[in-house]
Specification:
- Strand 5 and strand 6 form a beta hairpin.
- The longest helix is centred in the N-terminal third of the chain and has 19 residues.
- The strands form two sheets. A five-stranded antiparallel beta sheet has the order 1-2-9-4-7, with no helix packed on it.
- It has four helices and ten strands; from the N terminus they run αββββββββββααα.
- It starts with a helix and ends with a helix.
- It is of the alpha+beta class.
- 20% of the residues lie in helices and 27% in strands.
């Protein structure tokens, strides 16, 4: 009886692990059919209509325009740009930074990110979850690599007088991005000012001023 219970427990744990991971691919590829209704991903394009352009993107060598309030620009290459990434669980971004530019605190709800510095000196940071909220930070130089675990708030800040460039891979075809300031102060409709005033322990007028910027 004990051995039977042990076997059942093992099967239950094995099943839960299997269900918690992405299923293995049952075909060579599933190029996104962007004309289909998107329900947690894209349906597959008819494989007979697939060609090389479905797996191709050109332009990642071009610098992004950093003339904006934060001084950075993200150029994504995900399933929207390359339909062939559908179901493959990977994407890439190029990020350009003006001198002292910042990719503000944000999270990727569906992906871990691994970043490589191509040019510049960048301060990067991760903030752990409650209650510690530990700030783990390091200054990276050209050729350095850093990992941002899925879901954690993180940022990059160019600490040099020259432009910065990174290339980062993410473990999702559609990693998503939630920029903290935009989400909190730029929501539509607004989060009530008294809620944010209490959360940030500031006067409501400060909240109104911040919301006006977003």
């Amino acid at each position: 009886m004990a051995s039977q219970l042990l076997l059942l427990a093992f099967l239950a744990i094995s099943s839960s692990i299997a269900l918690a991971s992405d299923p293995s691919s049952l075909q060579d590829f599933c190029v996104a059919d962007k004309a289909s209704v998107s329900v947690n991903g894209f349906a597959c394009k008819d494989s007979k209509l697939v060609d090389a352009n479905d797996f191709f993107f050109s332009g990642l060598h071009l610098p992004g325009n950093t003339s904006n309030p934060v001084g950075s620009r993200v150029t994504p290459v995900n399933v929207v740009q390359i339909p062939g990434l559908n179901t493959l669980g990977i994407s890439v971004v190029r990020i350009d930074y003006a001198p002292w530019g910042t990719n503000p605190p944000h999270t990727h709800p569906r992906a871990t990110e691994i970043l490589t510095v191509l040019e510049g000196s960048l301060q990067v940071g991760i903030i752990t979850s409650n209650p510690e909220n530990r700030h783990i930070t390091k200054v990276l130089q050209k050729g350095d690599v850093f990992v941002f675990p899925v879901g954690l708030v993180h940022y990059q800040h160019n600490v040099g007088n020259s432009n910065g460039v990174v290339l980062a891979a993410l473990s999702s075809q559609n990693p998503g991005a939630i920029t903290v300031a935009n989400t909190v102060f730029g929501s539509k409709p607004d989060i009530p000012a008294d809620v944010l005033a209490k959360a940030f322990q500031v006067d409501s007028n400060v909240v109104f001023n911040l919301q006006a910027k977003f």
